[in-house]
Amino acid sequence: MRFALVLLTLLLAGTAHAAKLPRLILAGPYASVSNPLIHMVESGALRDVADKVEFVPWKDPDQLRVLALEGRADFVAMPTNVAANLYNRGVKLNLLNVSTWGVLWMISRDPKLKTLADFKGKEIAMPFRADMPDIVFGLLAQAQGIDPRRDFRLRYVASPLDAMQLLVMRRVDHALLAEPAVSMALRKTRSFPVSLIAPELYRSVDLQKEWGRVFRTEARMPQAGIVVLGKARTDARLIERFQAEYAASLRWCQANAVACGRMVAKYVDLLTPEAVADSMAASQMRVVPARQARPELEAFFRRLHAQQPALLGGRLPDAGFYYAPPTGGGTRP
User: Where are the beta strands (DSSP E) in 109-232?
Assistant: First the structure.
């Protein structure tokens, strides 16, 4: 009897070990949405799920699309419109959650600039041409009767960190930045906190508040979240575990901003721990499951589609885009 129990224990242990993944890839940009992913790797949150858990950065939308199209990652942080576009183009993915609701700001050397109209005729460093920052800027401008291509001099750059560098090096006076690039620019020019005498740079227009004012809605936008790709889509238990750990890691980052800053700064040479900590305080970050966020996402997507259908791959994504746990548990088709 004892021998049978020992044999059964060994068999169960072997089965559990066989079920453990050899490698799990988490990917994202150097932005606030990726901070929980980095913490999950650093804290070993999924060590019992996979032998090796890695964070892989993507630096621009082209790298992101290659990552998704070639299935080089399991869970990826990305703008919500890119997720919808890839889904509509046939990429096997599901949106798990929206966690980024407000990280976009106009930053300027001129404290008198308070609205987008105040920037008319001025050169603005703009990251990610035809992606989230540029899209939001264009929608807000057009809704106020401003032509974003004619009324501004937009200088497109590869990323928010590149735009931040132009500001710090005084090659531009105005930029649209996403956190943590905003906080980094303010820190590098000693313009933080805002009470500092004669700061060099100012937070000018909060694009989230501008969105709420212009479109008469909440002062937030469903900007970015996490998608699950490829074979990981079929493992409901893995997805459930990931969702719980991502939410827990976000809570940890918010409660331990300085420690989070030290951790993230190890991955990004251009960032400092202090700037990452500042950005956590300034960012609207909250994990909302995709199905729950669907009404706000569809309202957001309709505005994108009305401006340029290609941003979403020609249409709003159908219900299959929004991940829902299977009713029977276990795996999904």
Answer: 123-127, 153-157, 174-178, 202-206, 224-229
Domain positions in the chain:
2-101+223-321, 104-215
CB 97 within 8 A of CB 244: no
Q: What would the two tokens of residue 326 be? A: 């299977």
Helix axes 273-282, 181-188, angle to 10 degrees: 130
Query: Are 244 and 251 within 8 A, CB to CB?
Result: no
Asked if the domains at 2-101+223-321 and 104-215 fall in one CATH topology, the answer is: yes
| pLDDT average, residue stretch 172-191 | 92
> At residue 175, does pLDDT exceed 50?
yes
Name which of 121, 68, 115, 109 is nearest 90 in CA terms: 68
Question: Which CATH number, 3.40.109.10, 3.40.190.10, 3.30.260.10, 3.40.50.150, labels domain 104-215?
Answer: 3.40.190.10
What is the CATH topology of the domain spanning 2-101+223-321?
Answer: D-Maltodextrin-Binding Protein; domain 2 (3.40.190)
User: Looking at the whole model, is its pTM more than 0.85?
Assistant: yes
- Taking only the tens place, the pLDDT of each residue in 7-56 is 444 444 444 444 789 999 999 998 899 999 999 999 999 999 999 999 99
Q: For position 195, what pLDDT does the model report?
A: 52
3-state class of 283 per DSSP? Answer: coil
For residue 122, pLDDT over 80 is answered with yes
Stated length of the chain = 333
